[in-house]
Every structure is written in C-alpha cells, then in structure tokens.
Amino acid sequence: MSTPSSCPRNPIAILGVWVRSLAEVFTTQVMMGRVKPATAGPALRRFILARQRLAELAERVAAGTYRPRPARKPQAETQPEAQPQPEAQPQPEAQPATQPESATPLEIPTQTAAEDAAPSESAPPESAPAAARRKPPRCEKLFLRRNWLDALLPEGRAPGFRAGLRDWLRTPEMVALMAAAPGPAARLIRPLCWSLACKPPEILKPTPRRPRPKPARPPKPPRLPKLRRNFTLTDLSQPDPTLHRLDPPPGMPAWRLDAPPGKTHWYSDRLYEKPADTETS
C-alpha cells in the first residue's frame, strides 16, 4: 500500500488508513445516491471487522500466546480410551423439609384438561424453524461474486485500492505475520483479496483436502454362460438301431402300421417285451 514515509510500518495501522479511505469513498457514493446505505454499511463492516481481528491476531503473535491449531488425526486414533468409572457412592436419603407453622403454604394454581389441550399464547408459532431459515439479505449475495467491491466504487478507483492492498501484503511486517499464523491470516485476508480480484500470497493458499475413501463397490453378479450358436442338431430322420426297431411290436393297432409313401415307421425299444433271463443250474 502506497503510504507516505511518515506513516508507521505497523501493518494494522496501514490497513486502518486503507479502510478509512474506503469509508470516505463509500460516504461520497451514498450522498450522491449511487450506492444504497443498506449495501454500503455491511460492506464497510466486513473490512472493519477484518482489521480488528487482524489486530488481535498480531497482538497474540507478538505476545507469544498464539498456538497453531493441531492437525486432525484419523478418527480411529482420536477415540479416547475407556476409563474405569468410579463406583457410585450411596447418597443419603433426602429428608422432607419442615415448614414452620406460621408460614402459609403456597397455593399452586391448577389447570383443567381443557386448558391443557388449548395452545398457549406464549408458545412460539409452528413456523419458527422456517423463520430461522430465512433467506440472506440481498447484499450478502453481492459478496459472493468475485471483484464485488469494484461495483461499489467510482469508475477508476478500484485499481488504486487493489494496488494498495498488494503493497500492504508485500510489507515485511505483514509477510512475517502471515508466516507466523498462516491459518487465521488466510481466513481474514483471502476475503479482502476476493473483493478486489487480487491474487492472495502463496502462503495463504488452502491446503488440499484429503480425498475421501470411495465406498467399496458391490461384487458383480456371475455372468450366465453364453449359448453356443454353432451346435449341430441330431438327425432324427433316420432311426437309431440301438433304440428303435422296424418290426411293429405285438398288439400294435393296424391304423398305426400305415406309413406315408416313402416313409417307414420305427418303434421304440421299450414297447417290446424283453425275454426273461433263464437261470442256469
């Protein structure tokens, strides 16, 4: 950020000068009717909160009280070991509280069954969960777009603020702060870079997430055997001498003995009586 030599080298103070310049531009834009107050207020509040949190982070780093967040361990390692629970000690029986005779007993109002069934006036309406899930304001949708601050500034002022932000990130004090606490600094500085389409420093790039293990695919069903298409059919036009005979069996009706011209009847071997085996002495 281009600042005169008289300005301190404290990065938080430099950011404060940058935010005050932005507030003056917003004030001018609102007075001229180019930006609505409902949009300029939340936008300026984002930069003010970022400066305050960066100041708190710088104080913790300078005091040596900042501790980086430990890396996450696999779920199997983070499960605590089962500790033996202490044996439950018998508790003394509660004695009924004695009430002095002079004190009058409290009167507890009773409620009828009809009053129990009727809904209470003080009970929250059924649409309370729906009201909690209200849509965010329209200005919040503006902050989701890249380079959204350029739409709120006068024409030609965004490059100056963008150059000031880049110079501020290159100061040795800010580089040291980002190196000491890269995680919290990234969560505060990356939205500032997003508002002006400014590339954040390499140290603030998010770490790649671990790839989630893919679920095991179910085993494929066994394939059915393919039908053979090159098989040959058995020739049934000729009888099989091991299974058929040409002489008609006994008791065959005459109408079954007539065969078409050029055809011959054959009969199954099961229609004939097989001779019984004679026992030899």
Oligomer: single chain
Distance between the termini: 128 Å
Topology pattern, helix = H, strand = E: HHHHHHHHHEE
What is the strand content? under 5%
Rg computed from alpha carbons, rounded to a whole number of angstroms = 47 Å
Strands, count: 2
Q: Provide the helix percentage.
A: 25-40%
Ranges where pLDDT stays below 50 over 5 or more residues in a row are 2-8, 76-80, 99-124
What overall geometry do the principal axes of the alpha carbons give?
rod-shaped
Q: Roughly what is the average pLDDT, rounded to an integer?
A: 74
Report strand order across the widest sheet.
Answer: 1-2
Number of helices: 9
Structural class: mainly alpha
The biggest sheet amounts to: 2 strands, antiparallel
Explain the overall architecture.
The chain is mainly alpha-helical and about 280 residues long. Helices cover about 35% and strands about 0% of the residues. It has helices at about 10-30, 35-65, 75-80, 115, 130, 140, 160-170, 170-180, 180-195; strands at about 245, 265-270. α1 (about 10-30) packs antiparallel against α2 (about 35-65), α2 runs antiparallel to α9 (about 180-195) and α8 crosses α9. The radius of gyration is 47 Å and the shape is rod-shaped. The N and C termini lie far apart (about 130 Å). The model is unreliable at about 1-10, about 75-80 and about 100-125 (pLDDT under 50).
